[in-house]
Records
---
Amino acid sequence: MKPFSFKSLSATSYTSVLEKLDSLRAGLRWSSQLERPEIERLLSQTGELREEIQLLSRKQRFLQAYDALSENAALTDSASSLSLSERRKALMDRNFVFEGVFGDNPKLLESFEIAQLAAPTGLPVLIEGESGTGKELLARVVHSNGRHRDGPFVSVNCGAIPEDLIESELFGHKKGAFTGATSDRKGKFESANGGTLFLDEIGELPLSGQVKILRALQAREIQRVGSDDIIRVDTRVVAATNRNLREMAQAGTFREDLYYRLSVIKVTLPPLRDRRDEIPLLIDYFCSEAASQLERPPVKMSRELRTFLRTYDYPGNIRELRNLVFRLSCLADDYADTKHLPEELRVSLNETQVPSLTSNRPLSRGISLIDAKKAASDEAEKEFLENALHETSGSISELARRIDMNRSHVQVLLKKHGIDFRKYRVANDNTKSRSLESDITV
């Protein structure tokens, strides 16, 4: 029997692939009468056919993604001419699936509009933003509004995986593949098959792990550790980071090809301090959430407390606000005040209430002795921080380490005294350059 040759047909359509498949199936009917070389030739032809089907599948996915983006192009063009409230309403009118609340901030609306357009395409999405801005929430938005919505949503913190277990964690392993592998185990890519895999803190992943993820994204297939079997996966990947991956790629600490593979659609979430209109909505939302979990009525807040919550800068963004509301709901019975805030935040609040020592008011209408002591203490504290920043070249982390204090607390103290740590870095750099110039002159 003469084996079928694929060279007679062109793999330009599904029709040609079906013709090849029929011919291959006809040849397999005589498999019991074939010699080993002929069987191996058939297996080789099967592999060729599989590759052509994969190529057509990728082309089809690309065309579908392009069509989806084209259909929504008119919506994007018209969005720029709408008011912020109209853009927000337009998102909701398009059956935008979102669990939570959001305001009319233009940067945030732009992020949601991009996510809403990208979700149906299945393309990889990279979400950038500071810690606590809601990157995982946006990843769930992409999942809930996409074609993988009925599949699982699997989240992985890349920074928490030991380097020697990255491959096993992501792709699984066979029993006996290494010490401790007592049974077969699925990896995250396989567990998310038909759904979405959220790779949080992707910038923390070592280069060795980045190579393996790149291979899985390109071929859409994986291998468990210790196995030769190829497993096909249809997994949508959404990655998130609080670092600048482009700068990391230029510095060689993040693979450039993986960066471009992940950032087909890139979304940047603004910090909470840049979207203050959302704070009152979030406070009420988290109050209701806390009341439900604690099984008590929503806590009421004093005017002074609400003013502080609306004006505070939130280094930890939405996550910090949520934790604050839950703390207030837990510690206060029915009515929360500033006394229920954490100590470091009460320090920040009190700085606006301390009179100046340089006031020329009469003693009878001036500051008390207690206030004078506190103001003097604050001046000493400010001087200490400024001197320490000079010594640490403006490094907050190093300053926090030397004085044995939490980094976020140091940031609160710097904000309290209006100290900009960045100018100490500039001053230090200028000092070094002047010193270098003098050395050259000498």
---
Amino acid sequence: MNESSSPSSSSNPPVPAKLIVRTYQPADQADVTRLYTDGLLEGQIAANDTGADIENITQAYLNDPASHFWVVEGEGQEGVLLGMIGVAREAEHTAEIRRLRVDKRYPQELIGGILIETALTHCKRVGYLKIVLDTRFRRDTVLGLFERFGFQHNRTRSHQDKDLLEFYLDLYRGPKKDRE
């Protein structure tokens, strides 16, 4: 997700009453590229990130039924993307959540939560047993959002003086609160 939190400035557009999550379409490419670029930490692509999937979403996410890419827009604001998320096959029973981005003018936790819920529903339907994700952001909103859905912090790696936080969720075990 984007590094800056949603400002409460009156210059921000209002949150649409209804948010629509749908499959990426080629006409979304400009907004997807904007969300991706706006979400880069300090405006720079990580050394291990080519961004090639953003340039080839159909090939990277839509040709494999176990993968997918969604965007969210507000009702009445068709064609203006507020966020995006992708799921890619990592291994036979493991998915990776990728490219979670929310336009910084909108509530990160609200829209991010809707996108994560969409991705998790897909992962369960496809039959994944484990989901992994990573983030370079150390923000309470992002960490709280991942924890809300049961993700566990696995490890932190330093890369180019930035911390990369890795998380996982075991779908076959159920949420931690249900096991206690």
---
Amino acid sequence: MNTLGGMWRKLWRGSEAPSEWDDPEPEHLWRRTFLRLAIVFAILFSGVMFVFWWAGSAVKYSAARAAGLAVPTWIISGVVLDRVTGQPISWAQVEDDPAGHPPFFRTDADVRGKFSLSTLAESHRVRCSAPGYYPKVVQIGRAWFIWLPRGEERLRIELWPVAS
């Protein structure tokens, strides 16, 4: 009795050399299959653990933010420059925009115009000001679905001088 499977087997075996019909080491196929499944499982398990970690971090951050206990984990560093001359502006003030949500963090630039501000990781605005210059507001941070609890951002802020 000839079955459909038997017909296809005959056609398949007819396309290759008789020495390749049977695998001399069937254990070899089992090991390879097991190794592939183990690798796929490890990748999926790692992905699920990463998602759990990320979701837990987001919930922890949101709970701390709602309770008013948020810790600054986003570092903004950069330089404040004069837009016309390109020279650094000493002692410029860099702070979270007062129009945003508290808590607010602030820092001052040094003599060379360089600053480093620790703030919250969420997307918000930073205000930069200096005597004799128009203040400038810059958007920083990341959207909630792509942020990680910690990070850094580099800025180059150029301020326009007030016309005398």
---
Amino acid sequence: MNIHEISLKMPTQMKNLKNALLLKQLYELKNLGYRYIDLSMLDNTSDEKAILPNHLPQLNALITQCQLCDISKVRDAVLVGEGSSEADIVFIGFKPSMVDSSNKSIQSGSKGEMLKKIITNVLELTPQQVYISNLIKCHPKNDKDIKVNEIYSCRAYLYKELEIIKPKIVVTMGIESFNYLTHENVEIEEVRGKSIKHDSFTIVPLYDLTYILKNPSLKKQLYADLLELKKIIDQTVLKAIS
């Protein structure tokens, strides 16, 4: 894409951002008690994806400039996804940690080290087979509770990432990322370690790694789920390669 093509597309993207800001304001009205807002406006995933760039570099550039929610006003950094744009397996967390934000990487600290060991040592994968991202792209100051409208503002970016990458397996880490990706409302114990067909890929939900670090007694259960995940990878990804 040359500079002229970029300049032609930017006004459309700005118009789409203004539309998203309007939707944000409508959600805020709903939180104040208004009942006329149709939530299906933001559940139309095809519409959400269609307004965004079709290549990861351009998408990530747009994400880094995002001002759609209150988190953007106080963030230290925007944490975009990391890894291969042709990955067969995508890992999705809920939100970046304070350590992630300070280091400007979503694979920081103890959580990041644990994930790296899981990918290389347990699942025996290479960086070319993996992409890592979060549903929420910015760390909320003081770990404040994230509002529903803030989640919907970010969710369109995640949908577009998956559309671009076209993974075979999506590993959700924590129940929030699973529920908001699938429009479900379940507990992690109902779905963890299971193979769940969704759209064009298979979802395998796992515990949130931060939760595991705070509750090390669950490591044994996580390891059992990872062994199931490895079987699913062998059956869907490695078998397709061979």
